[in-house]
Write a structure and sequence with these properties.
The structure holds 2 protein chains of 2 kinds. Chain A is mainly α. Helix content of chain A is 75%, strand content 1%. In chain A, a hairpin with a 2-residue loop joins strand 1 and strand 2. Chain B is an alpha/beta fold. Helix content of chain B is 37%, strand content 28%. Chain B has 11 helices and 14 strands. In chain B, the strands form 3 sheets. A 6-stranded mixed beta sheet of chain B has the order 6-7-8-3-9-10, sandwiched between helices. In chain B, strands 2-1-4-5 form a 4-stranded antiparallel beta sheet. In chain B, helix 3 runs parallel beside helix 5. Classes of the chains: A mainly alpha, B alpha/beta. At the A-B interface, helix 2, helix 5 and helix 13 of A face helix 2, strand 6, helix 3 and helix 5 of B.
């Protein structure tokens, strides 16, 4: 696959561009924006204030048009095609997964990207106008690096929003998919707005970074300026988002193979997040396995949200067919995530033990507690996936999650004054002081996992076998 | 050729296809019929490589659809029961997109679009938005999108549903023209009279099982072991019934509503021989015709027989 096929000769991109970038939109979008910004300078007020107002107008338009509307357009790009019954025709063409991925991310949102490409230079220019006294390096960095980060960040958001269309077995009727389509762009916009708000109204000179605090970042011991680190981060995650979308499209085009890319991404994510805490072998400080936390959350999140396909499970567990064939057609991502968490945890644990750091015991307990919790919830959610109708699975999972993670701990707190019987709060250094507490905690989780597997998994398996 | 062997497809609640096997020769039109929920759409989606069967194999001209679905996609066109076309694009733009997406060589794109528009009677609608088309025209546009790259195989799920009689006849003619180009078609429909116009193979499916796969029309009659004939005489029908019953090759004979119904052993030669003998012996023959079961008759015989 060469760049020519991905961009100039990409039929899906060309189709979308012809629909999105009409001559009217190309002409009127910048005219409208320039008029809107120009109007901000009409009142009789200090130039600095007027510039700030103009910047705020630009930011609002960018958040509304680039983040919220663009994110929604991306989320709806495949979903709409499924609703209008054109998606299967697209799947049957000779277009590759790469062409469809680029066509959807950069084509279906072409007007939103064009809007941002016009807006962000205006924002950068206004920033330079506002901070005339700032050092040239700072001004240029902020005026160029931040817009580039925001544009790349939008593209990353779009890729993720398109990719989420493929997580659902029935995304057209899925309330969760609808909630996700609207919710993620809105939450992103609110998060970004809070930082622009601080910059524009509270601390005019504080826009060094969109990371809370705006400080320089120490990542794996390297000191990096905030804006540059954000740009670098977005440039790392954008290819991952596109790669994830490409893999999802390949699966949708019946080109699925073993989901090796997901554990590789988890490894990358673990390394990326761990970079903020330090190297596990660093004996100068007892570093918690921070990188494992997002993996544990992702694994549990998948357990909560992933619809397990009973036919996929049966295909996976059935004795016929090669293992590769069975894995590629039925391996749930939640299982793969938890397996990756366990393997990475063991490696991290080994690293700690070799380094002689006291973090070894922390990570061992964290790993054991998380694994037992995940095993218990895996049995619970698998039972729901196999026994409850698809339409009621989401609600059932939520009810179960609230029951075992909120109701049960609160009851225990009221009765015995300790929630650790059902929640592995073992990263709390206090918990390490008393080994009996840890053993009680792990023993409780272990007992729950054993009971869940002994009672629920055979019932789930029976249902799968009956399918 | 389409070759399906022991195809099984499971849904969580039921078995949709249960050991379906058949062959459809190149250049033929197969009629896939069966009651609602029989498994027709699932079978077609498996053939199109859009659904992965639980077990069994599907070959399109030697390509394993299960193992290499993308390879198969390039060689087939598929129109679904509930199809869609982009409402904000013109007819020509839709066809242009699919021509590009199917890697039709650039120098052949215009000609392919023209040919497809002419074949489907949409030439005068080329610049119309598809949202302005009638249902029949949209249906033809969707077929045009599926055949713009002239695939070897065309699979159509209920292509005539919602069409008026004239549009159905036109559609049937278009299918025959595609077959003449060498395309192999598999068409499912509940309108059996329409399938009768162009199908030369019958595939009857019920409850996930293929009840029968057979050749149809005149070709079937030519290779059959006997002929069913209707003979209409000007008079003396009853006496000719009696005489015919003793003739060589006549398996059975009876009078039905003033017409003599004869089952004759043999083929073309025996049929022409019977007519010659009737005339030579002075029978006042007004009509002498081969009685063929309609597709509907055959379908009902099969389904009721199974029930």
């Amino acid at each position: 696959m060469n760049l020519s096929e991905l961009f100039p000769n990409n039929p899906e991109l060309r189709r979308n561009l012809s629909l999105e970038l009409t001559s009217g939109r190309l002409l009127w979008t910048p005219v409208f924006l320039l008029i809107a910004v120009g109007l901000c300078f009409l009142p009789d007020a200090p130039m600095a204030d007027l510039t700030r107002i103009a910047q705020w107008v630009v930011v609002v338009v960018w958040l509304a048009g680039g983040v919220v509307w663009g994110g929604l357009r991306a989320a709806q790009s495949v979903r709409t095609e499924r609703m209008e019954r054109t998606w299967d025709s697209q799947r049957l063409t000779a277009m590759s997964a790469g062409q469809l991925a680029v066509g959807k991310v950069f084509g279906a949102t072409a007007h939103n990207l064009y809007l941002q490409a016009v807006l962000l230079p205006i924002w950068g220019g206004l920033f330079l106008l506002r901070l005339q006294d700032a050092p040239l390096e700072t001004s240029l960095r902020t005026a160029l690096v931040v817009p580039a980060t925001l544009l790349a960040g939008s593209a990353t958001l779009y890729a993720l929003m398109v990719a989420q269309s493929f997580l659902e077995t029935d995304p057209v009727r899925s309330a969760r998919s609808t909630l996700f389509s609207f919710g993620v762009p809105l939450v992103s916009a609110v998060y970004l707005a809070s930082h622009f708000w601080r910059d524009l109204l509270v601390d005019p000179d504080g826009l060094r970074s969109l990371i809370p605090g705006g400080e320089d970042v120490s990542w794996w011991g390297i000191e990096i300026a905030g804006p540059e680190f954000q740009l670098a981060s977005v440039c790392m995650f954008l290819p991952w988002a596109m790669f994830g979308l490409w893999r999802a499209l390949r699966r949708d085009l019946q080109e699925a193979d073993f989901p090796w890319a997901w554990p590789v991404f988890l490894l990358f994510l673990g390394v990326y997040v761990q970079g903020f805490a330090g190297w596990p072998g660093d004996s100068s400080k007892a570093v918690a396995p921070v990188g494992l936390i997002p993996l544990a959350l992702l694994g549990w999140g998948f357990l909560l949200t992933e619809n397990l396909d009973p036919m996929g499970l049966r295909r996976l567990l059935d004795a016929s067919g090669s293992w590769l064939e069975r894995l590629r057609s039925g391996l749930p991502l939640s299982w793969l995530t938890l397996a990756t968490l366990a393997v990475l945890g063991l490696f991290a644990c080994g690293g700690y033990m070799l380094s002689g750091s006291r973090g070894a015991s922390e990570i061992a307990v964290f790993l054991a507690g998380s694994s037992l919790l995940a095993l218990r919830d895996l049995a619970l959610f698998s039972w729901i996936s196999c026994r409850v109708a698809v339409g009621r699975q989401g609600l059932s999972r939520m009810a179960l999650a609230v029951g075992v993670h909120v109701f049960l701990p609160v009851m225990l707190l009221l009765v015995v004054g300790d929630t650790r019987l059902v929640w592995p709060s073992t990263l709390d250094p206090e918990a390490l002081n008393g080994s009996s507490k840890i053993l009680l905690n792990l023993g409780s989780l272990g007992l729950q996992a054993v009971l869940a597997w002994a009672i629920l998994v055979p019932a789930s398996w029976k249902r799968v076998r009956e399918a | 050729m389409i070759r399906v062997t022991d195809l099984v497809f499971r849904y969580p609640s039921h078995l949709a296809l249960d050991g379906v096997s058949f062959e459809l020769p190149r250049g033929s039109i197969g009629a896939l019929v069966g009651p609602n929920g029989a498994g027709k759409t699932t079978l077609m989606r498996c053939l199109a490589g859009l659904a992965r069967p639980w077990r069994g194999s599907i070959e399109l001209s030697g390509i394993d659809v299960v193992a290499s679905p993308r390879e198969a996609h390039r060689r087939l066109g598929f129109l679904q029961d509930f199809f869609g076309v982009w409402s904000d694009m013109t007819v020509e733009h839709c066809l242009l997109h699919f021509a590009r997406a199917q890697h039709v060589p650039r120098e052949r794109i215009s000609r392919s679009i023209e040919q497809t528009l002419a074949l489907l009677g949409l030439a005068d609608k080329a610049s119309a938005l598809s949202s302005h088309l009638s249902r029949g025209q949209r249906q033809r546009l969707a077929i045009g999108q599926a055949i713009i790259h002239r695939p070897e195989f065309l699979i159509l799920d209920e292509p005539a549903s919602g069409l008026d009689p004239e549009a159905r006849i036109e559609l049937g003619r278009a299918f025959l023209r595609l077959r003449e180009e060498g395309m192999t078609l598999l068409v499912s429909s509940h309108i059996l009279a329409e399938l009768d116009q162009y199908a030369d193979r019958l595939l009857v499916i019920q409850a996930g099982k293929l009840l029968q796969s057979e050749r149809l029309m005149g070709a079937a009659a030519k290779i059959a072991a006997h002929r069913d004939l209707d003979i209409l005489l000007a008079d003396a029908t009853a006496s000719w019934v009696e005489r015919l019953s003793g003739w060589e090759g006549v398996e059975s004979v009876r009078e039905h509503q003033g017409c003599i119904q004869v089952r004759l052993e043999g083929g073309d030669a025996e049929q022409s021989g019977l007519l010659a003998r009737l005339v030579s012996e002075g029978a006042p023959v007004l009509e002498f015709r081969l009685r063929e079961d309609s597709l509907q008759d055959r379908y009902l015989q099969l389904v009721r027989g199974r029930a």
